[in-house]
Write a structure and sequence with these properties.
Blueprint: E1 2-6, H1 10-19, E2 24-28, H2 31-40, E3 45-48, E4 51-52, E5 55-56, H3 57-67, E6 72-77, H4 82-90, E7 95-98, H5 103-118, E8 124-127, E9 130-133, E10 138-141, E11 144-146, H6 150-161, E12 166-168, H7 169-177, H8 188-204, E13 210-213, E14 217-220
Parallel strand pairs: 1-2, 1-3, 3-6, 6-7
Antiparallel strand pairs: 4-5, 8-9, 9-10, 10-11, 12-14, 13-14
Helix pairs in contact: 6-8
Pfam family, one: Response_reg
GO biological process, one term: regulation of DNA-templated transcription
Domain OmpR/PhoB-type: 122-222
Length: 222
C-alpha cells in the first residue's frame, strides 16, 4: 500500500514514515510539491496538513474533487477548530486528526480508510480458497498460511483491490517503488515479484486468478 505524507514539519514527516514502514511512503513538504505528486501518482491514502508553505491544503482537496480522484485523504493539522474539521470533510477528506496525535492512532485511521476504500470495510478478504487478514497480514490458501514478503503482499492487495481491471506494468512499478519508478531502467523487479507471488500461490493450490494481459500488464479476476 502506498501513502503520501504532505507535511512541512520534517521531523514529524520523518516520524510518520518511520512508524509506517510497512507502507511505501512518499513525502511532500510544500503546496507545490504536493500538487506535483498528486498530478503524477495515485495513492491508497494521503495524509494532508492543511497549513503548507505556498498554499492552503484545502485547495488540494478541491483539486482532488476536480480531478475526480478516489485516493483516501486524512487531514492532519494543528487547527482543531470545529469549522476547519467540517470544511475539510465537506471538501472530500475521509478523516481528520488533530496534532499532536499518537502514531498508533494515525496508523489505525489509515488502515480504516484503506479498508473502506479498497475492500468494502472488511478486515478479512476472501476469494474462494484464498483469504487475507488485513490486521495480521496473514495470507492463507485452503487454510494453510503462505509466507509472503512485504512487496509480494503489497502486490497481492493492490491486484485484489483492483480486481477485474487491467493494471499496467508501469502502474505496478510505481505502486511498489513509489516515485523512484521513473528512474528505473526496466520493470524487471515487477516481473520478479509477480513470478514469486504466482509460484507461492500456485504451489499452495489457489485458483489461478492472476492473469497476464499480453503487451499490457496483469489482471486479477474475481
Amino acid at each position: 500500500m502506498k501513502l503520501l505524507v504532505i507535511e512541512d514539519e520534517t521531523d514529524l514527516a520523518s516520524s510518520i514514515t518511520g512508524y509506517l514502514a510497512d507502507y511505501t511512503c512518499e513525502t511532500a513538504g510544500t503546496y507545490s510539491q504536493a500538487l506535483e505528486k498528486i498530478g503524477l501518482y495515485e495513492y491508497d491514502c494521503i495524509l494532508l496538513d492543511i497549513m503548507l508553505p505556498g498554499g492552503d491544503g484545502i485547495r488540494i482537496l478541491e483539486e482532488f474533487k476536480r480531478l475526480n480522484r478516489q485516493d483516501g485523504v486524512i487531514i492532519i493539522s494543528a487547527r482543531n477548530a470545529l469549522d476547519d474539521k467540517v470544511k475539510g470533510l465537506k471538501k472530500g477528506a475521509d478523516d481528520y486528526i488533530a496534532k499532536p496525535f499518537h502514531l498508533s492512532e494515525l496508523a489505525a485511521r489509515i488502515h480504516s480508510v484503506i479498508r473502506r476504500k479498497n475492500f468494502s470495510n472488511a478486515d478479512l478478504i476472501i476469494q474462494q480458497e484464498l483469504s487475507i487478514d488485513l490486521l495480521s497480514k496473514k495470507v492463507t490458501v485452503h487454510g494453510k498460511e503462505i509466507p509472503l514478503t512485504k512487496k509480494e503482499l503489497e502486490l497481492l492487495l493492490y491486484l485484489m483491490g483492483n480486481k477485474n481491471r487491467v493494471i499496467s506494468k508501469s502502474a505496478l512499478a510505481e505502486h511498489l517503488s513509489g516515485d523512484i519508478a521513473d528512474m528505473l531502467d526496466s520493470h524487471s523487479f515487477v516481473y520478479a515479484h509477480i513470478k514469486n507471488l504466482r509460484k507461492k500461490l500456485t504451489d499452495a493450490g489457489y485458483g489461478n486468478y492472476l492473469k497476464n494481459v499480453y503487451g499490457t500488464g496483469y489482471k486479477w479476476e474475481e
